[in-house]
């Protein structure tokens, strides 16, 4: 997907329109911070948030609401639908038989937080645009872009939702109910390495739940029902945690079935990042934690997902950034976390703080490692001489391909146009189509997207069918691989390898019968190509087997082995399914 400038400007303008609308709501009303429960037809004060104008009146907790702006509380729209008290002027409570009228005081705390959240919302969108140069790869990249837009709108809606803005509350509920859907999609692709872009049954359940919840929300606005009001005030938040726990259990079950450790830190980090917001501010289980502390933690979820997308090459990264600037961003980020945790130390008990910090560090360390890998890649640091050799070989191949095909055709077509008295429009279009076709073929050779979209077996079958259509050759295949155990990077390498070996058999050995065998055993993937061709000279000669040498270099990078036999001609490659552990960029 290519994010054009017009598309980006559209979303930026849309975000600005939402900002203007919510600004009008926030700056024309003062946040009181009172939430209530209904018991025996009485509205009982449940909580008084520290950021509200009534923060200094914690003594009213447990009191019953008598009047709101001089009116019966039963007739108050926000009270009966959101369980919040947001008066324009005053609220009257009955505290131990004594009536008290509290006058709302103008305060700017909620307005300042709204401004901070708005700045963050715009920065997220702008940095995402700058970070990936406005381009992403495949459906997962598109979904992440929509997730960024959705998150920016959600940040704008938090404070308006708290003061009872109906549209802001609708947007927040929509985000909360669909958040597990996005998490499931990202986890399936980035963690479980599931091929294809279809959504799971769990995602369909979440999608259905989200749609039904929003319909019930609209119904409750029209005709409030007590249990629905309670659900939309509290239950919808708890269900987010419930679905995240379900996702975690799914991953553990997958681990049990596959007998391999899965990187669950992204999901674990999401749970830990949401904990202070839900159980420290919205529904405090002890001392209330200021809402402002939760903002940096929420951004960690986006940070973790984008790290995985970069390393999985599902979004393009602006590698032209100065490494110093990149490191400066890291320094600011970690300094903010240190300050945040020093502030949280004052809010939590020491034992709980130590436990929370330990778990948080455990979840964050893999992300730090990924940041270092990305930083190293930006600085051009490679892990071994093999990486350098493989890279140079690929560059030489690309340069040779462009010089021998595309450039030669362009020169030829240019001469044809120069000697032609009249330009044939149809012929010119055919020339351009021919050039475009070759460039697309080059892009496919550099980094084929087929494995991620179609799966390894279908991709290899498609490539071999093309060979049989273009050449007089019969190709037999044996495929016994559990695709879910092969990640996309190794799968792409397998596809390239099979294509190169079959091409060698046809072009250099004049083979007419080729057998391709792919299998897995004990976390080792085997590729064997056998043909009836006759090669002149050394099969491994650099003169004819430039592509084979490149494959050998990459097999070494992956920690694998190559065995070549002459009679009959066969090449057998064995590599670890997960790739070489100490070289994440070895086969990019």
Automatic annotation (TrEMBL):
**GO molecular function terms noted in the UniProt entry:** ATP binding; protein histidine kinase activity
Q: Which GO terms describe its biological process?
A: phosphorelay signal transduction system
Gene3D superfamilies (UniProt xref): Histidine kinase-like ATPase, C-terminal domain
What are the protein's UniProt keywords?
Answer: ATP-binding, Kinase, Membrane, Nucleotide-binding, Transferase, Transmembrane, Transmembrane helix, Two-component regulatory system
Any idea of its EC number?
2.7.13.3
Q: Is tRNA processing among this UniProt entry's keywords? A: no
Signal peptide residues on this chain, from the entry's feature table = none
Q: InterPro entries this protein is in?
A: HATPase_C_sf, Sensor_HK_TwoCompSys
Instruction: Tell me what reaction this enzyme catalyses.
Output: ATP + protein L-histidine = ADP + protein N-phospho-L-histidine
Please indicate which superkingdom the organism of origin belongs to.
Bacteria
Q: Report TM segments.
A: 7-27, 112-132, 144-164, 170-190, 202-222, 228-249, 261-285, 291-311, 323-345, 351-368
Q: Which enzyme type, at the first EC level? A: transferase
PANTHER family assigned: NITRATE/NITRITE SENSOR PROTEIN NARX-RELATED, NITRATE_NITRITE SENSOR PROTEIN NARQ
Q: Protein name, please?
A: histidine kinase
Q: Which organism is it from?
A: Streptococcus mitis
